Amino acid sequence: MLRSMFSAISGLRNHQTMMDVVGNNISNVNTSGFKSSAVVFEDVLQQSVRGAGVASDDAGGTNPIAIGLGSRLAAINTSFAQGSLQRTGRSTDFAIQGDGFFITEQVGNIAYTRAGSFSVDALGRIVTNEGAFVQGWQADQFGAVATAGPIGDIVVPVGDLVAPVRTTTVKAGGNLPADAAVGTAITTGAEVFDGQGNPVQLRLEWTKTGANAWSVVARYVDDTGTLIPTPPAAGQAVTGGALTFDGAGELTSGYNLTLAAGFLPGFPSDAITISLGAAGEGGRINQFGELTSVAVTEQNGSAAGTLQGFAVSQEGLIVGTYSNGRTRAIGQLALATFSNPQGLEATGGTSFKETVNSGLPLLGTAGSGAGRGLITAGTLEMSNVDLSQEFTNLIIAQRGFQANSRVITTSDEMLQEVVNLKR
Questions:
Q1: What is the reported pLDDT for 144?
Q2: N or C end of the chain: which has fewer CB within 10 A?
Q3: Residues 6+ apart with CB under 8 A from 123
């Protein structure tokens, strides 16, 4: 009877632990990135009453007899099943669709988490709500990211300045009217940039010189708003500026024009190529009908720009947007996977740390090998707690506790009957 009481006590303790785990799951039902846990019980060593008997010609074999000594906690397993995703709209909220963990560092301690509610601190570092630094690879000044190197803190360079880019190529496309009279002039404009990022207003004048033939000259607008060269003076001729078209309206000569160095202010030694498109290339200059749509479609220069914001791709690449309209990579978020994520040790704050049984972290980018998932920006992964299952577990734990309590009560009554035998 004493044995039954001790067995029941172990059952009480285990079901109390089960209640603690279920209660923790339910309390974190709205905790982003939380992973639920479940208890596993096993029986304690058996007390042998009689061993097994061997079978012989004279007697059959007998089975062993043992009495169990209660139960104990075998494990508390963490479920790393995917939680649902909730849209937040914050640029620093990230969720992982698939396997993998964000990597954080604080005072030399490395931790791994699925909770992607981050922010940018006063020094531009991406940090967790607890102040830990989110790890990854920082891009260099040209936007290149070396993911083969060691990981470190990711810094968003607030107020970062991107250098200006001098214009070297201007692309023009569209249609010149085939039915235009000889001498018809059409003007198009474009803003180009010198080596210091100063804008220069370039004007291209297209003049029909004959059947299926056009010429191109250039002018620019100075600081006073005056065209240089000032009409009626002739515009600056461009090398290769004689355009000819065939009977189908396709350009047959003058695919690439050159505006000589020294003509535009700020371009003392730098020529500009004016590309009209190679044969068969989309968006090139044509001569059809009466439509006039010729225009400068692209130029490769820009002024200096400052960082205005950033976005994160599915692969975890952080791309900055600058005031001059250009973009450049800032950094790359790193993800870690483990051969045995069940071996990770929970440290609180929805974070885990590596153990001897989790395996070494396999670092890489989102969407790459080792089963790493994709990153969704502006989204958080919610808790994977299943409330219906947890409430069922509550009932199971309660009934298990009640049943073990009844064993103790019954054993006590039987002991009382033994004591009363003396009366």
A1: 92
A2: C
A3: 155
User: What pLDDT, on the 0 to 100 scale, is given for residue 3?
Assistant: 78
- Quote the pLDDT of residue 412: 83
Sign of the dihedral defined by the CA atoms of residues 397, 400, 402, 408, in that order: negative
Which residues of the chain fall below pLDDT 70? 1, 279-280, 423
Name the residue among 211, 204, 202 with its Cα closest to residue 177: 211
Phi, psi of 76 (to 5 degrees): -120, 105
**pLDDT of res. 62:** 82
Beta carbons of 44 and 72 less than 8 angstroms apart? yes
Exposure string for 394-409, b = 16+ CB within 10 A, e = fewer: beebeebbeebeebbe
At which residue do the structure tokens 């300045």 appear? 161
Q: Which residue has tokens 């791994």?
A: 112
> In angstroms, how far is the first alpha carbon of the chain from the final one?
21
* Side-chain-facing half-sphere of 153: CA atoms under 13 Å: 19
Determine contact, residues 85/380, Cβ cutoff 8 Å: yes
Of 249, 251, 75, the C-alpha closest to 172 is: 251
Per-residue pLDDT of 70-94, as tens digits, reads 888 999 999 999 999 999 999 999 9
Instruction: For residues 306 and 163, give the distance between their C-alpha atoms in angstroms, rounded to a whole number.
Output: 9
Distance, CA of 248 to CA of 279 (rounded, Å): 13
Radius of gyration of the chain (CA): 38
> DSSP of 104-118, one letter per residue?
EEETTEEEEES--B-
Q: How far apart are CA 307 and CA 164, in angstroms?
A: 13
| Comma-separated ranges of CATH 2.60.98.20 domains in the chain | 169-299
Residue type for position 319: V
Any idea of the CA torsion for 359, 364, 368, 374, to the nearest 10 degrees? Answer: 100
pLDDT at 266: 92
The CATH code for residues 169-299 is 2.60.98.20
